[in-house]
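Bench notes, afternoon.
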Amino acid sequence: MIEISEFDESTAHQVFHSWLERDQRRLTSLQMEWLKPKLTPRVEYGIEMPTPLFLSLIYEFTYTWHSFDDNLDSGFEKAKTTKSAIKYLYARLSEKYGEVLFYRAMKYLKQAGGLSETELEDMLSADNEVLHSVFVHYLPPTDVFRLPGTLWIRIRNDMSKYLVEKNVDNVPVIYFYHRSFQDYDEFGRDDTRKVEVIRRAYYAGNVGHFLNLHDLPFEITSEKLIKMHRSSSLRVNRCLNRQQAYVKNIKGKDRIYNMRRINQLFMHMSDLCCEPWFLYDYNFISSYLHCYKISDLRASSWFYPTLRFLLTQYEACSFVLDKHPDNFAFDLSARLGSLVDILPEIIFKLFYQCLSHCALFMVENETPSPDLCMSKYVVGIVSTIGLDRDSGNLLVLLAEKLLSFHLEEFYLTSKIDEYELPSKEFTSLKYSESYICLYSTKHLLVMQCGQSKKCVLKLSIEDLIHVEFIKMGTLLVCSKGSKLVKVWDCLKETPIGQHPFDEAIIQCSTIKHDSGVVIKVTLETGITHYLLANVTKSNEENEVHFTHVGILKEKLGNDSILFNSETDVYYTEHQTSIYLYHFNRSENDHFKEIDNLPPMNGTVSLHNFFVNNKSDSALIWLTVDSAVILHSCGNHFNICGEYYAVCRTTGTFVGEFVCLINRSALEIYIFEWKCESGIHMYRLHARFQLDNKISHCVCNIGKSC
């Protein structure tokens, strides 16, 4: 036994020679020269080499060498890291046993986190691609149509040094003993999907659109075998073991749950390769709820609208079901009862499964309307809120802390992060990717969220009037009375560029652009400058570039709002016309007046959205009896009703939606509209009745894509 304090070159040589001595082996001087680069300490891709596992793999490879060998295998020469050594090992064994059979066996083990011998042989026997690769010249009897057990035994024997037996969910399974094998994943996304379909179908059984593995026919692709069997498809018995029920009820004892089956289906829910049909199965969900909570469920359901709807119903019941899982049948059937005429077929089947297991029934026509509110939180007095559409986080700024609610559909119930603030001075926020900027008229704080959760920039600035993230952690800062705008690199806490002006700044605003932001700066003289700022990377350093794109020497109205990256809109309250200033056009095409509009009352809101993969925009303002929407085409239309606010939108919507608030009636209205050939049509998309008065509102509405 050799005690290793530091794995230097002499230690590596000592270990290697001790193995040769133990096994009474010798290598030629040429072969020892081949090994020298492998035993030399070095750093490969940030990892110190050689590792003990790498050394062990290299030693195993030498077993195939002969004293007369004078040429080095190119695959061995490329094995410079533990990962590449595993790749070389797999390549050799796949050549020996067949690429499809070997790689699929390793993939099934990896995806399942370990399998029993029976489970693995069953899955390989259910995999037609594996059987095609093995049965090239003949087929086994149709009544015992399985992979020969000796094939896996041979693979297991060759891999015995890297496999270990352990107990998982009371089942003895075989798995990789070292994390490097567990993490190795160069099998291809398509292979992963095929393996996951069979693995999940094996444990789920015949539910949804999963393959019925027990009755799965074998499709013959070889012309020789088709002629031999006079058919291209055979009904076969693969002799697969059937799964035991999710739960056993033993008289006088507690229920016994089949944790092996439940956990195998529950695995990898954050990276679904196929639709998880078992989530529509009453037997699985009712058993799952006794072992886990709805909040433990993670599902990438974005691509499955029907599942997304069902998960919403599960979450709405979670407050009760997390405490009383036996109520599942009653609670879900009560929610789905009023929707029975429009339910998709697979959810309709689940609804009737619930009814058949429900001891209580809703009286007809007395089914309560479902509560559309998914989550409610008491947080205290709110300064402001924001919704980051890219990350799916709702940000709530309180006096002494910042709350971040993870609302993306990956999470069925909101995960909340709390950030304690150094003072109560912050009143506003901006956000971009993993950065959040909190600011007031005198102070600014930039935080990096996610795993690091740290403050990266803190500034004290008098009369701060505007901040905006550009990209790559860079922040534009502008203060009233200053004669320049600055751009800071938040991580390095240093300014990386600035643009000076001749006079003091009194107003500043920005709008996002493909390559950065458009900046509008108004000076004390009344002159307004339009700049394009973009950030590029040079020698690992951020660099900012300013381009002057326009100048307006006199204001066209008392108020203005950037309409898009090419147009500024000027208006005056109570007037019925606006002026469009196209600052990047030729001088003869700068201005356009739009008149005969409803009076411009109060605040004008900008609304961005996507239509046919193109960015578009509209202006929205409120009159006494309607909401006015002015589209980029130059036409406007009214949505009749008494509205008190336009819900602030974030990011860019997929589709043409607008959210309006009636504070006195505690109602939120969502309208969908479309513009065809300059003609606008709209409809009420949804209406929500609330219990409490609204002080702040943000929304993110869009069609599934």
